[in-house]
Amino acid sequence: MDILKNKVTWSIQQEILESCEKRDLPLADALKEKGLTYDSLRYRDYPGSVMQHGRSEILDDEAKLSGSIPAISFFSGAGGLNIGFEHAGFENLVSIEINEVFCNTLRHNSPHKTVIGPPDNLGNIRDHEQVLSLLENIIGTSKPFEGVFHGGPPCQPFSIAANQRFSKNSDKFKRQGFNDEETGELLFDYLWFIELFRPRAFLIENVSGITDCDSDGKIKAELDKLANHGYEIAPPRVVNAAHFGVPQNRMRWIIIGTCTGKPVDFPEPDAEVTPCSYTFSRDMSGVENHQTRKHSAGSIRRYMQLGYGARDKLGRVDRLDPNIPSKTVVAGGTKGGGRSHLHPYAPRTISVRECARLQTFPDHYVFTGSTARQFTQVGNAVPPLLAYKIAKQIRRGL
User: Fold this and answer.
1) Does the structure show a pLDDT above 60 at 302?
2) What per-residue confidence (pLDDT) applies to 163?
3) Which of 75, 96, 178, 351 is deepest in the core (most CB within 10 A)?
4) Phi, psi of 179 (to 5 degrees)
């Protein structure tokens, strides 16, 4: 796909923008009149040609492993961990999720799978009795559970980026960590279920900043309790998804525990990081969740002056550099959408689908809800490709 063909000339682009500003005409309407789209526009530093710096891995190109090792998904979100584990030969029996929009996406993509969550029930694992009753109705009461638990408790209390959305004068600007009344202790609720069911293996995922908030050693104390129950728990690993085929810098904190007598070997990282150029050279025709924002002429005029990696300070968006991994795809708050980055070759913000490709979601996977909520779902997720590579190692360990 030639992503640089059909671009307008610089002079024509200037004429279109000036006409919109003088006539107070929406740029989207002006482009449509001329049979153009936002992808027809260009940056000042028009590259002329695109160099491919390596090819991103795509989950659909990876071998889908057979098997049916049972798995339970906690804090399922939009399903990033679910997809990776399913592709590695696990069978996700149940997804537990508190957000109804996320539950709708899970049900839309896997209508025959069980989801514990709204509107059927709360899906709140803080309510131990309700979730326990629902789980036992599905997987039975026998313990230990002959499968795997996986989940990433909400990371907002431990995330620097999540808190910097607020004013410096706000109490929420500083990370609340485990003191966050709503979600700070959910990790320990998850560990309660692990201790109760004793799955053969478990995975915990979060942002790397979680350790900064654990000055009292609460995590280690809880993990030591699991070790006393026979779990081999590898030391926490902080990894960059860009070293595992994901075309995005995304630092994650991973813990894997098993009761098989030996710890799981973590997948070996690639020596080089994965650039995002291939993500933006793939054909976008026919994919869902690819509605792009209708920027004003003024916004485009600012964006088109930016070089690779530069930031538009007014909109607080960054132009991606295709030669290196994308900046982290962010979720934004639960009441507002994620803030997407700027496309490397067209002066516009990237779509939900383009964000999903940076996260390595398959194109057939559909995100439901408003566009703002779709961005939140994608930005909250674990990259399925990273999940797949970790799940393969867990499977070998079992």
Assistant:
1) yes
2) 44
3) 75
4) -85, -10
Reported as a pLDDT band with limits 50, 70 and 90, residue 55 is low
| DSSP assignment letter at 170 | S
In the chain the domains, ranked by start, together with CATH numbers, are 54-398 (3.40.50.150)
The verdict on whether omega for the bond into residue 154 sits within 30 degrees of 0, i.e. cis, is no
Classify residue 63 as exposed, middle or buried by CB count within 10 Å of its CB (0-12, 13-18, 19+).
Answer: exposed
Name the token pair of 89: 């030969």
State how beta strands 251-258 and 201-207 pair. antiparallel
- pTM above 0.85? yes
Give just the sign of the alpha carbon dihedral 162, 164, 165, 168: positive
For residue range 315-354, list pLDDT tens digits in order.
999 999 999 999 999 886 555 555 689 999 999 999 999 9
Q: Which of 271, 345, 327, 374 is nearest to 51 (CA)?
A: 345
Q: What's the length of the chain?
A: 398
Which active-site residues does the annotation give?
155
SS3 sequence of the chain: CCCCCCCCCHHHHHHHHHHHHHHCCCHHHHHHHCCCCHHHCCCCCCCCCCCCCCCCCCHHHCCCCCCCEEEEEECCCCCHHHHHHHHCCEEEEEEECCCHHHHHHHHHHCCCCEEECCCCCCCCCCCHHHHHHHHHHHHCCCCCCCCEEEECCCCHHHCHHHHCCCCCCCCCCCCCHHHCCCCCCHHHHHHHHHHHHCCCEEEEEEEHHHHHHCCCCHHHHHHHHHHHCCCEECCCEEEEHHHHCCCECCEEEEEEEECCCCCCCCCCCCCCCCCCCHHHCCCCCCCCCCCCCCCCHHHHHHHCCCCCCCEECCCCEEECCCCCCECCCCCCCCCCCCCCCECCCCCCECCHHHHHHHCCCCCCCCCCCCHHHHHHHHHHCCCHHHHHHHHHHHHHHC
